Amino acid sequence: MKLTEKLIELEEKMTEMLEEVKTLKMYAYSLEDENEKLRRELCQYPEETKKAVEENAEKIQGEGYENLARLYNEGFHICHIHFGQPRKGDCLFCMGFMRKM
Amino acid sequence: MKIIATKDNLQYGINTVQKAVSTKNTIPVLSGIRLKAVDNKLYMAATDLEIGIECFVAVQVLEEGEIVLPARQFSELVRRLPDTKIAINYIDSIIGVEIKYNDAEVNIKGWPGDEFPVIPDLEEGEYHFEINSTLFKNMVKQTVFAASSDESRPIFTGALLEIEENDFKLITTDTHRLALRSSKGNIIKNNNINLIIPAKALAEVSRIIQEDDENIQIKGNNNQICFKSSDTLLISRLIDGRFPDYRQVIPDKFSTVIKIKTKDLQETVERANLFSGEKDGTSVIRLKIENGYLNISSKSDLGKVDENIPIFVEGEDIEISFNARYILDVLKVLESEDLKFSLTGPLSPGVIKSGNHDNYTYLILPLRN
After folding, report:
1. Which helix (H) or strand (E) covers residue B55, if one does?
2. Fold adopted by B2-115
3. B102 partner at 20 to 30 Å CA-CA among A7, A70, B56, B289?
4. Which residues numbered 42-81 in A keep a CB inside 8 Å of some CB on B?
């Protein structure tokens, strides 16, 4: 085979490869777009779901506070140092904790 | 060991170290005071393995040596000695000493000096501070009484020593009240520490510091702390654990603030305390702030007290009960003519501060009706 023919063949192969790279590049773009779209969808809850979650959290917090206050009023520590131990009189740290909640 | 000493010097040394003598009988040598004669100084030491105290007094040393003598017999004897030259000589045959004064002689048996534990002075400590000794004595006096004596909650039987930059803070609480005293000191090595020191050890440091000692050196590591003045060294173990966040319990907003003469309040509370009907260590007195007056009242089976004190008041009227003993405790150590008493409500802690400076805070929980 002549040198010219070899060069022509090489040029054709390179053109083919370039085309393939272009196709792959477009495919990568589309994957990136899709990924971004899915990420946004995952992070974004609908308003009603958000509200329900917040309400639930407030309810749990309220119940938690009531439970702790009841435990304290029944004569037990709720501060982290002596949690659950019987107390004599009021405790500065339990009351500080309740004030902070 | 052969020394010649004066009664006053021996007495001073014994008084300094005696509080560290062990009262338990488990290790006999710990019920003694170690005497070590070196370089015209008599080093005296005692320890119960919780705290150790060592001091030195000037004596004439004729022969160096050491011995441990039973603390009770030795201190009682020295207390009763005449005010004259006293010679103390080691006698090998009895492992003890002969004490000679005037024409008399007393023999006391002891233990060999090397059986006594070494009291380290923590020269290579992880931290090193110094503070004016009179100031430190005052810090201890204003806080140590608020520590708990309940050994089942060890953290509260100690005082938190918090040092940040040059700010020294000492904090104690028994969870019903809290005392916080801050001041300035010098940092020599390491600038941020947070240690819980047994309140008993601090009270002992305060007792043995002389008013004329300029500065007290504080050194140590995470297990032990050492206080050193010109002639005395006290070493104490530290209390393990984490002191609770005291900042979160100090209120910063108040509905009622009164200013009152410390002496007026102290005398009235002392009278009211007589009829407070003490029960389980709680003496209830009632405080009512109304129309520029503080009304303090108490009632028991034996009688009642009802007194009005004119005050300067800002904010709302309030009725609140306190344990009289907790109020009296702080009034005894508050060294100011006036005080500021701030309240938030009948269930929130009251805050007492001295009238002229802001370096002392005392929190006290009210009693429920």
Report:
1. strand B51-58
2. DNA Polymerase III; Chain A, domain 2 (3.10.150)
3. B56
4. 79-81
